[in-house]
Specification:
By secondary structure, the chain is α/β, with parallel strands linked by helices. The protein has 23 helices and 18 strands. Among the domains are: 177-220 and 581-670, no CATH class; 222-403, Rossmann fold; 453-549, Orthogonal Bundle (Arc Repressor Mutant, subunit A). The strands form four sheets. It has a seven-stranded mixed β-sheet with strand order 6-5-7-8-4-9-10, sandwiched between helices. Residues 119-158, 406-447 are annotated as: Disordered.
Length: 683
């Protein structure tokens, strides 16, 4: 392909050079320079008396021609500068080989040349013939922008070690599992108040992890372990622009570490929490799994009490508790204004006696280190005092992340609060799948031979004549699925916010247009149809040129929810149209609310039919199908257990209950330590 492109590129370069040099040469030779000195007073008076003369018109045209040429030259120069800047940025990101790698490469090259000198030339094997639909050039990967750096995740407002980011993503997944567990299907009305998306910073972390491969375990950074290893015994003070951001990072990483290491505990003061979280400290602080002391005297008592308890959050007042578990780790956060010199001295003594990690956000009577804004600590007494990079967060990012690991707010949600509206998938002209009768076999959904068929239930794929089309960019695949779930379309801002959450829109518009242009061109080349329409800055799938399985499911659900005859046939049509969850193989953050809303619509129909079914056997089969769709829902299992009990099969009911508890335990939903996490996000 390079041999074909370079003549065209050379001709383009020659054309641009001719376009830049020809106009000034022609103007200088035929007319001369646009201005030959300033006009005299006599010439100015003549121009005022008679402005429209042949000479003045010729001069105006000459100046206009020179201005047009200057605009063209400016445009070309700016394009060259942008291309040079992009090339420079790419070269800076290009990983250079280490000396060991360079030596190994040189030795391998020498060995290859030494072997091939006397080797016979053989024809390379021919690659297998590929399908014309699936055959695509391998594209460059989507640029993750500023989402990933080294072994951490960059978000708007901070940086997280990858280990902490992965634990936060796991906590976010548990939030949705708890929402699934706690949802109560209702035949007539559905409560979707808990379908609010997770905070933007959480979505940014999920998106960054979804688009980047997991590095080797040796490259991951554990913020808490790294902190304990570098800080001196007795505590340390942190000063500099990174003191408060590192303090917030410690707060988040210590609390999220409790899910994996329940022996980690965090003790802080009201003043320190207010310095870190600002206005959110009062409402969010009481919901966090940490211990808050009103004064340093109380904090010292809590530190000693925690030395005899594995978890001061739940048993901090037990003076007769058994000795703490091996490996129990206490982290103490203080504010610069907490207590006087004597109280601080008692804190130092308590931390040394209990091996607690004390961090003061400000000056400290002991060692005081400088914290930079990137998350690095600098010991002034060492020439090379840089430790590992620690988590840094601003108030907004820290509050977002702490929300998913907070206890539920005891205050009930305001019924007047407007509910978030979720898009309903559905073609403008939904077509019901052909219903099978009892006397004819059920047919599989028909895949059209002409229009492309977009399958988004399960593993997303675009099928053309039954063959999957290779979509080269992950962002392009997201666009297809997003538009399938938003039949009314989406504008540029909605697409960029969904695909690249947490990144500034101004830096993403070009990436979105590139992905869209590549996607539309690939589909058009494969089938000759314009699948994506663009009208008034809104993109939408053209229902006349593409068929979507989600639209068939939506039509089947509507039919099953409204029909009063042949309900079993309508229910079976829903099951046939729902082979798997929406984009089940993908972890894009924007999917969760839509995926759960779709699942809930099916569960509502399931419970409605089971409630109205007089036959207990048929009712149990309906509920069993619903459990296969959502094995985490508690209400479905209660209904199924009651149906089995009504049938007199108490042993099967007990077995169903035990299996359900095991399912929750394997998913981490029923783990005792995870009960501290909020099942819903209170907005």
């Amino acid at each position: 392909m390079a041999e074909v492109r370079w003549p065209r590129q050379l001709m383009s370069l020659l054309f641009v050079l001719a376009l830049l040099t020809s106009p000034p040469v022609v103007l200088l030779l035929l007319i001369g320079p646009p201005v030959r000195g300033w006009p005299s007073m006599e010439q100015a008076r003549e121009w005022v008396q008679e402005p429209l003369t042949e000479q003045t018109l010729a001069g105006a045209l000459t100046i206009g021609a020179w201005l047009l040429w200057l605009m063209l030259a400016y445009t070309v120069a700016m394009r060259v500068l942008v291309r040079l800047r992009e090339t420079s940025a790419w070269l800076r990101r290009l990983p250079l080989p280490t000396p060991l790698q360079a030596t190994a490469s040189g030795m391998a090259g020498a060995a290859v040349f030494g072997v091939t000198t006397n080797a016979l030339t053989t024809a390379p094997p021919q690659p297998p013939e590929a399908s014309p639909v699936a055959l695509q050039d391998e594209p460059p990967p989507d640029d993750p922008g500023e989402a990933t750096h080294d072994d951490g995740i960059e978000v708007s407002g901070g940086w997280l070690p990858r280990d902490a980011a992965e634990q936060l993503a796991a906590a976010a997944a548990l939030v949705w599992l708890r929402r699934r567990r706690d949802y109560q299907p209702r035949p007539t009305s559905r409560d979707d108040t808990d379908l609010a998306p997770l905070p933007p910073t959480v979505a940014a972390v999920q998106a960054a992890l979804a688009d980047t491969p997991t590095p080797p375990a040796a490259l991951t950074t554990n913020g808490i372990s790294a902190l304990v290893e570098v800080l001196p015994a007795g505590g340390v003070g942190l000063t500099g622009p990174g003191a408060l951001p590192i303090g917030r990072g410690m707060l988040v990483t210590a609390l999220i570490a409790r899910n994996r290491h329940p022996t980690t505990s965090l003790i802080t003061t009201k003043a320190a929490l207010a310095s870190l979280l600002g206005p959110a400290a009062e409402t969010l602080g009481r919901r966090l799994p940490l211990t808050i002391a009103d004064s340093l005297d109380e904090l010292v008592r809590l530190v000693h009490a925690a030395n005899h308890s594995a978890d001061p959050y739940t048993t901090m007042q037990r003076q007769d508790a058994a000795p703490r578990e091996a490996g129990h780790r206490q982290i103490v956060l203080l504010d610069e204004g907490d207590g006087d010199e004597t109280q601080v001295k008692h804190v130092v003594e308590a931390s040394v006696a209990t091996a607690a990690v004390v961090v003061a956000l400000g000056d400290w009577p002991g060692p005081t280190w400088h914290a930079d804004s990137a998350g690095y600590l600098h010991d002034p007494h060492q020439a090379d005092g840089n430790g590992p990079r620690l988590c840094v967060l601003d108030q907004t990012a820290a509050t977002d992340l702490l929300t998913i690991i907070a206890l539920p707010d005891p205050a009930p949600p305001d019924p007047t609060t407007p509910r978030s509206s979720l898009p309903r998938a559905g073609s403008p002209d939904p077509r019901l799948p052909r219903q099978a009768t009892r006397h004819e076999p059920r047919l599989q959904p028909h895949v059209p031979r002409q229009r492309p068929y977009l399958r988004v239930l399960g593993d997303p794929q675009l099928l053309i004549d039954g063959e999957p089309l290779a979509i080269r960019r992950s962002a392009a695949l997201q666009i297809l699925v997003y538009l399938a779930t938003h039949p009314t379309g989406a504008d540029t801002a909605q697409l960029t916010d969904a695909i690249w959450p947490g990144l500034p829109r101004r830096s993403l518009t070009g990436r979105l247009y590139t992905a869209l242009s590549d996607l539309r061109g690939t589909i058009r080349a494969a089938c000759g149809l314009h699948v994506i329409d663009h009208v008034d800055d809104r993109y939408r799938l053209n229902p006349a040129h593409v068929d979507v399985d989600l639209w068939h499911l939506d039509a089947a659900i509507d039919h099953a929810a409204t029909t009063r005859i042949n309900t079993s046939t309508a229910w079976q049509a829903v099951l046939d149209a729902y082979p798997a969850d929406l984009a089940a193989t993908r972890t894009w953050p924007w999917l969760d609310p839509i995926r759960e809303a779709t699942r809930r619509r099916i569960l509502d129909i399931c419970v409605s039919l089971a409630t109205a079914e007089p036959d207990s056997h048929q009712a149990f089969q309906l509920l069993q199908a619903g459990i296969r769709i959502d094995p985490y829902n508690a209400d479905l299992h209660k209904h199924a257990s009651r149906a089995l009990t009504a049938l007199g099969n108490h042993e099967a009911a007990a077995e169903l209950h035990d299996h359900y508890r095991q399912t929750l335990t394997r998913a981490g939903v029923d783990d005792p330590a995870s009960h501290r996490l909020s099942p819903t996000i209170q907005q």
